[in-house]
Amino acid sequence: MDDTGNRLRFQLELEFVQCLANPNYLNFLAQRGYFKDKAFVNYLKYLLYWKEPEYAKYLKYPQCLHMLELLQYEHFRKELVNAQCAKFIDEQQILHWQHYSRKRMRLQQALAEQQQQNNTSVK
């Protein structure tokens, strides 16, 4: 494959892997039978290379890697047919982001206060 073909393949696989972070998209795929297709399941296994740091650094939605990992399990793929399952995952992601954002803000605030104290004590 030439450089243009490799670049296009990289872009397509990057976009697809990141779509896996969306539980509603996973529900869509499950309801249309994609997770019953052995070739598609093998493709999901192939995509695990995105977990390697040299590829993962390009991801904007790293939670897609967790979903990709869960998609390796038949039971998880079967459960995704249920819209309630997708809704639950979606809600859990939102709760995680809210908690992470608050925690990160508190950590940044504490760091700023500590730096301010260090600057004052140095004088």
UniProtKB/TrEMBL annotation:
**Claim: rRNA-binding is one of the keywords in the record:** no
GO MF terms here are: transcription coregulator activity
Q: Return the GO cellular component terms, semicolon-separated.
A: mediator complex
Tell me the keywords, alphabetical order.
Answer: Activator, Nucleus, Transcription, Transcription regulation
Q: Name one GO biological process term.
A: regulation of DNA-templated transcription
Which residue spans traverse the membrane?
none
Q: What is its main location?
A: nucleus
Question: What's the domain of life for this entry?
Answer: Eukaryota
Q: Where in the cell is it found?
A: Nucleus
InterPro entries given in the database record: Med31_sf, Mediator_Med31
The keyword Nucleus is annotated on this UniProt entry: yes
Hey, which family's this protein in?
Belongs to the Mediator complex subunit 31 family.
**Subunit relationships:** Component of the Mediator complex.
Q: Report the function annotation for this chain.
A: Component of the Mediator complex, a coactivator involved in the regulated transcription of nearly all RNA polymerase II-dependent genes. Mediator functions as a bridge to convey information from gene-specific regulatory proteins to the basal RNA polymerase II transcription machinery. Mediator is recruited to promoters by direct interactions with regulatory proteins and serves as a scaffold for the assembly of a functional preinitiation complex with RNA polymerase II and the general transcription factors.
Q: What is this protein called?
A: Mediator of RNA polymerase II transcription subunit 31
